[in-house]
Amino acid sequence: MSTHAEAVEQHVGGASTKAFITVWIALLVMTGIEVFLAYEQIPVLIFLTALVGLSVIKAALIIAYFMHLKFERLSLFLTLFPMLILCIILMLLMFMPDSSRLMMMRPQ
Amino acid sequence: MSEANTMTVTSVWEGGRRPYAVNSKKFGMWLFIISDALTFSALLMAYTYVRLATPNWPMPFHFSPSIIFSTVMTVCLLSSSLTMVMAVHAANHGNRKSAVGWILATMVGGAAFVVLHLTEWLGLINNEHVTPFDNPWGVPLFGGTFFALTGLHMTHVIIGIIYLGIIAIGTGSAKFKLEDVEVSGLYWHFVDLVWMFIFPLVYLMSAKI
């Protein structure tokens, strides 16, 4: 019986309530870590890497579990996300080197 | 009969079938989300570009009240995402009453976010004298990029609250299909997702760099 209930749960909801609460707690913990790191004496590069890394992990968890993409067909993911990621990479490649150059040109 | 026996299994891409196995409303919302994600990516990129390129970038976000406020706002949005997931879960199980209750809880979380954000904005405008076009540090691009980015996000949250209100009424009166709850949930989670980048890049970075 329980096996049948679990099968229904997987079919209509994709994940259980417990999984959703676990993801929510993980998101809160990562937010706490971000705030904690902002007031710790750590090198800027490590701080920035941790901040962006944690944000990407949080976004991935929201997309996978809350937005249900983990339980959709792979074709949906492949249609939507590669071009989004490519566009973001292109923007990064175009703008970031120039902004870094301007940063280096600042009067000391 | 003999014709049916001779039919071969065709690909889902040859027409007449649903290759993504999602309804058209859901697919439409996904397409909107991807295009909106590009808009926010461009704005975040512009903010970061201007920030890196401008000497003496202002850092008016003190721990109290700005970082405390923005952290509480993050908790509000994350919690509202959990209640939205519960609404979708209830809708998927055919429980309209429960779904409406969870949607209303989500709207409360969103409203709390907007109230806190507006309070923080007013603090910046009244105490630090920051406007979209001017500020005491002589870096007008700070106000322009900050208010454009957070303002567009707050507009999305306000539209989301109205959208959820319509969905709650339609779901409660059985005028809307239960799948509409899931489609509205996608939008709400996207709004939450965008804040996961604005919060560290705009507020937390101000604490250190």
Mean pLDDT of chain B: 91
Rg result of chain A: 20 Å
DSSP helical segment count of chain A: 4
Distance between the ends of chain B = 74 Å
Examine the secondary-structure arrangement and name the CATH architecture of chain B: Up-down Bundle
From the N-terminal CA to the C-terminal CA of chain A, the straight-line distance is 72 Å
Which structural class do you get from the secondary structure elements of chain B?
mainly alpha
Query: Residue share in helices of chain B?
Result: over 70%
Structural class of chain A: mainly alpha
Whole-number total of structural domains of chain B: 1
Uncertain regions spanning at least 5 consecutive residues of chain B: none
Can you characterise this structure?
The complex is a heterodimer of chains A (108) and B (209). Chain A is mainly α. Chain A has two domains: 1-72; 73-108. Chain A has helices at residues 2-13, 17-38, 44-66, 74-104. In chain A, helix 2 (17-38) packs antiparallel against helix 3 (44-66). By secondary structure, chain B is mainly α. Chain B has a single domain, classed as Cytochrome c oxidase, subunit III, four-helix bundle (Four Helix Bundle (Hemerythrin (Met), subunit A), Up-down Bundle), CATH 1.20.120. In chain B, helix 2 (24-53) runs parallel beside helix 6 (179-208), helix 4 (96-127) packs antiparallel against helix 5 and helix 5 packs antiparallel against helix 6 (179-208). Chain B starts with a helix and ends with a helix. The model of chain B has no long low-confidence stretch (mean pLDDT 91).
